[in-house]
Amino acid sequence: MPRWDDAPMVGRAAELARLMAAVDRAAAGRSSAVLLAGDAGVGKTRLLDELIASATARGVRVLTGHCVDLGEVGLPYLPFLDLLRPVAAEPELAPSSAGNPALAALLAGRPPSVPPVAMAAENADLSRPLPHRASPQPVDDGRLQLFESVAGLICELARRGPLLIVLEDVHWADRSSRDLLRYLLARLVDEPVAVVVSYRADDLHRRHPLRPLLAELVRLPAVERLELAPLPDAAVAELVRVLAASAGGLPESRVEDVVARAEGNAFYAEELVAAGLHGEALPLALTDVLLARVEQRTPAAQQVLRIAAVAGRRVRHELLAAVGETAPGELEEALAEAVHHHLLVVSDDGRYRFRHALLREAVLADLLPGERVRLHAAIAGYLAAHPGAGTAAERAHHARESNDLPGAFSASLEAAEAARRVGAPSEQQQHLEAALALWAVVPDAAERAGRDQVALMTETAAASRAAGELHRAVALLRSALQVLGPDGNPVARARVHYTLAQAMVRVEDVSGGYRESAAAMALVPAQPPSEARTWAAATHARMSYAVGAMEEAEAAAEEALAAADALGLDGAWSDIAVTQVRARPGADPAEVRARLDEALGRARRSGDVDVEMRVLFNLATTAFEAGRIDEALDWTRRGTERARDLGIEWSYYPAELRHLQVTALYMAGDWDESLAEADLLARIPEMAAHVRAAGLLVLVGRGDPAARERIDWARGLIPRLSAHILLDLVTAGSEIDLAAWQGDAGTAVAVALATCRRLQQVWPDDHLGVLRLVGTALAAVADAAADARRDGDTPAVDRWTGAGRELAGAARSAVEIYRRSWGDTMGVEATAWEARVEAEAARLEGTVALGLWRAAVDAFGFGHVYEQARSRWRLAEALLAAGDRVAAAVEGRAAHEVAVRLGAVPLRTAVEGLARRGRLDLPGVRVVELSAVLTPREAEVLRLLALGRTNRQIGAELYISEKTASVHVSNILAKFGAGGRTEAVAIAAQRGLLPTS
């Protein structure tokens, strides 16, 4: 695995620019200095390496000195010895200083002898303030000659060219080095010298000898301080991916974990990546580094740190006092020591927290098991005795860690209820899972919980569904059935069966859902009507429609509706009403809307949030499928806002609403908002990954390089989420589109065919999604076939037309299967893509199909701004081929305006290339005449190059020598800035400069 300092620098562009500005000032003849501060591992050395490389590339001489931790007594002038040794090795660099005895003694490791008075002054550390003027006034001791000699040497070097001096880790500098640095920064005023001094901010405790020096230095006019803050999360994530790439990469969840734990520290990130690749929790090397600072503190301070580590990331003073049983004065001294040495910091609310989370992890890892249990027990006891001192979640944690399992069980249930009240389903699920894990070891679990184990399992499954963890919900419900057993209460078993069916359909297991709903129906009689039977029938109707058992579905639906009305079960009535609307495509739109409006009102009256979200999603979907994009967006916004208010924004239907919103915004041409919605939150459940993947539509449309990385991320998830067909569909569509813009017809075909087969398997009678895949892939294949025809490559023409016909056949088959099952009820988007497929299929065969392209333009006019513009571009191309330049210009201008407004760079480039080739009048596009670029002879050579002729063949056809032809080819490449013949032809074609005859 590469080290982080070998990886490309990330997240430090602004800081590097500031340092280079200091170098630029020095190059202009003005001295400058930067005091670079940052915690250990935050990236100071990596930034300085980049600075040195950049300065060297500009011709700046660089001298580097390093300080070393040698304890209380260090070697005098060590960093200056380090940076001056290269100069001593080349005396011709500073001939005037070569014979200086003070410098000779220094470089020989013998600092000049000083009189007793001077020695006393050195021990005093020259701590008085600097004078407020450029020339320094150090104590008049034997060191003055040395200090002035070093300054003179630096000035002499600087006269040969600008100079950058880098001193690293001056928090370890000896007294003499600090004094010399103080002298130099005051002495060097109008010299072409930049000085950059780095030090660890977290090592500067209150009495550190560097602190007063820094306070004085920043008062000098040419000195500035640069605080190196922790890296942003995005930069750490980029670094982690680079570090892990050589080992095959890390799962995205692991990347996010490293980012969260590293807290912007590059060194910590590197160690955590290495630990992750080798299965370690906290690497030993990192633990040693962190604990070294703890072990330097007094026993009282170390005990405070141990209590704080066990207590949590933040801890109150009162808890430390109670648990530590320390006298107030001693506790305050220990806390002051921990704070002044940057181990603890004080939060705005007055609580103490660790400077870095990994420091807490290291302290925890160092505790003996017995000590850890004892501290957890003491903290749990304190929290139980002082209810306002902590949360139920904290109490549960400390009780569990101190082996008080009954106490942990009860506190976990309290914590789950608290999370439910504030709309936090993920946290509710975690606490319920913790309680379930303790059920078997708590003798009176049912009494403490107030419900049986199956009830707790179904409650946990409901929380899992609300949090978007659908597979976990399925697993919990299956476990509940096992606990009930075949002889369990039939009503309880029926409830679990139909709830399991509802969860299974959301992970694309429709046949499994049908089996579960049928089992529920068999357990509960139809008479007398009951809540369990009504929900079983409602669920079974939905599953039966999904598997094509229409008569069974209708019977169950009618039973459910009647029972729901009789029992006043508005939630069940709304659920079955939505099922019937979706099972009957082609129904009167007004009736559908009225039915859904009633369902929404009833769902809200019932308080069934899941059904309410289902109704909102279907209101948005029906509008979307009818081409009413603005109405669909209105519903998606209402739904996502409602879900956010309820704290369930990543449960199934809210996630689908957000995915629909991202897609609808993309269609409407609001690409910035579409991308913002796709990237709204950094952490989302895996089953909602298609929401973020939907942002690919914009990234690919804009030609954003980030598209490739996001496609790879989504592709990595698909094998684990095999039932998540929408993720596959979104990713494949974007990957095909990217391949098409890049001219990679092979990839477009392979991805399209593979995804078409998968869609047909999962949705056998409704897989119209293949129309978009095929329509986009055919664009690339038709381009490849056209190129092959131009080059006279008959085998390639046959190969590409064969692939294209297979794609078109898959699309037509999907339409035929759909119409056989559902009649003529395709939505407007599917109809538009069908028109695109037919137009591209004609282009594949070399046909100028004006009517088909006009039909595609009209079909996408329902509100798909981008695809209509893309169809206009192809229509303009066809009109040019038909000789209608006026109409082609009209279509080209319309397509170009949209491409510019959306920032759709690939489409804009394609339209502008068409305009140049066809000499179309397009705003902002200058048509260059061939004669303005190439000589007549070069134009002839270019024409032959486009036909694939060699230099010898060109010479023969034009009656010139092969050498002369080579000269003409070289001139053409130079004028186009091309690296080869093929690239030159491509550039000429793009600019409309290929000769037509």
Automatic annotation (TrEMBL):
- Give the matching SMART domains: HTH_LUXR
Is this entry keyworded Repeat? Answer: no
In terms of Pfam families, this protein maps to:
AAA_16, GerE
Q: Does the keyword ATP-binding apply?
A: yes
**Family matches, as CDD domains:** LuxR_C_like
Domain HTH luxR-type residues, every copy: 927-992
InterPro entries named in the record: AAA_16, P-loop_NTPase, Sig_transdc_resp-reg_C-effctor, TPR-like_helical_dom_sf, Tscrpt_reg_LuxR_C, WH-like_DNA-bd_sf
**Which UniProt keywords are given for this protein, alphabetically ordered?**
ATP-binding, Nucleotide-binding
This chain belongs to which protein, by name?
A: Helix-turn-helix transcriptional regulator
Q: Which organism is it from?
A: Blastococcus deserti
